[in-house]
């Protein structure tokens, strides 16, 4: 009788036994769920549907209070105003926006806000870092950081109108040190920077709270390792803290940008009323002017649609750039 072929080799009993154990472990692990699904099919189906049922109320609320009004606004932007109220006019409102100098100024100011956004995020980020690392003065920051956030924009605007007036205390202080007075709210070249600075001061407390929440998830052993290696404060922030808070920074960037585009109306109304020479117009102030002063709701709806698209594009670009930066780090 011929012997076994030389190419046939006996299976490794150790590997075969290990594979058998793994298969038995998998079957044993999944057997309770399989039996449960067979015995209680309705309960298993309910468990699969539970997440969707829990999320459904929030989805319905967003659809009813956000998406549906947005769709109505977009549809209304293609109708006319005045005698043409409710009459479809196609893209006429958007063409009028394209030729309106005030709307051009408002979009240009949006670009300015985008350029100033890193500074608006860095200020609360650094203050949160000082509080977390307990640098000298951190108790003062912890005590007063949220105070501006509880003030009404009208009150904040009135206070800074007094402080930044041409004969106000700030210009008096500048005169005492030999610097000339500055027309903070009357100079078209600096009025927008002034209002943005006041807005950042009034709202950075919310972003700082978010940063402090992000620091609660930071692995303290990384900071200990940085101290042992002799890293400076700047190196610790740049190489340890920022990479660890990438998600938090993304969230603060997007929410701060949305706040700048949609929450500055109170300050603009009280401090500059869109002036001087329309230099402080933003899309939301333009929308209010067309709706409330000019009685042109269709044109205001078109401007609102443009503002929504701008916010969407800017937000997606920010998230994309921050994700790429996080991957490179």
Automatic annotation (TrEMBL):
Domain ABC transmembrane type-1, residue spans: 107-318
Family to which the UniProt record says this protein belongs: Belongs to the binding-protein-dependent transport system permease family.
Membrane topology classification: Multi-pass membrane protein
Compartment list: Cell membrane
Main subcellular location: membrane
GO terms (BP aspect): transmembrane transport
Pfam name, any one: BPD_transp_1
Protein name per its UniProtKB record: Sugar ABC transporter permease
Any single Gene Ontology cellular-component annotation: plasma membrane
Alphabetical UniProt keywords: Cell membrane, Membrane, Transmembrane, Transmembrane helix, Transport
InterPro entries referenced in this protein's UniProt entry, alphabetically: ABC_transporter_permease, MetI-like, MetI-like_sf
Highest taxon of the lineage: Bacteria
Bilayer-spanning residue ranges: 49-68, 110-133, 145-164, 190-213, 251-271, 298-322
Region (Disordered): 1-26
């Amino acid at each position: 009788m011929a012997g076994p072929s030389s190419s046939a080799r006996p299976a490794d009993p150790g590997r075969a036994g290990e594979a058998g154990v793994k298969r038995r472990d998998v079957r044993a692990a999944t057997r309770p769920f399989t039996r449960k699904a067979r015995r209680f099919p309705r309960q298993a189906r309910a468990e699969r549907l539970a997440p969707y049922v829990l999320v459904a109320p929030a989805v319905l609320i967003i659809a009813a209070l956000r998406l549906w009004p947005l769709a109505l606004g977009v549809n209304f932007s293609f109708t006319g105003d005045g005698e043409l109220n409710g009459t479809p006019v196609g893209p006429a409102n958007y063409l009028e926006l394209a030729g309106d100098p005030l709307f051009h100024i408002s979009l240009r100011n949006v670009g300015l806000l985008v350029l100033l956004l890193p500074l608006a995020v860095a200020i609360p980020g650094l203050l949160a870092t000082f509080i977390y690392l307990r640098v000298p003065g951190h108790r003062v920051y912890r005590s007063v950081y949220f105070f501006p956030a509880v003030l009404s924009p009208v009150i904040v605007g009135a206070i800074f109108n007094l402080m930044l007036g041409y004969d106000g205390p700030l210009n008096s202080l500048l005169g005492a040190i030999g610097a000339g007075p500055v027309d903070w709210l009357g100079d078209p070249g600096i009025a927008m920077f002034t209002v943005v600075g006041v807005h950042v001061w009034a709202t950075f407390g919310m972003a700082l709270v978010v940063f402090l929440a992000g620091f609660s998830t930071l692995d303290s052993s990384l900071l200990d390792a940085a101290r042992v290696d002799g890293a400076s404060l700047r190196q610790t922030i740049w190489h340890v803290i920022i990479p660890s808070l990438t998600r938090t920074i993304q969230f603060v960037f997007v929410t701060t940008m949305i706040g700048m585009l949609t929450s500055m109306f109170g300050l603009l109304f009280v401090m500059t009323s869109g002036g001087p020479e329309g230099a402080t117009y933003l899309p939301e102030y333009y929308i209010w002017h067309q709706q409330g002063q000019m009685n042109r709701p269709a044109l205001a709806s078109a401007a609102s649609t443009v503002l929504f698209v701008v916010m969407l594009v800017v937000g997606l670009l920010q998230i994309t750039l921050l994700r790429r930066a996080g991957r490179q780090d």
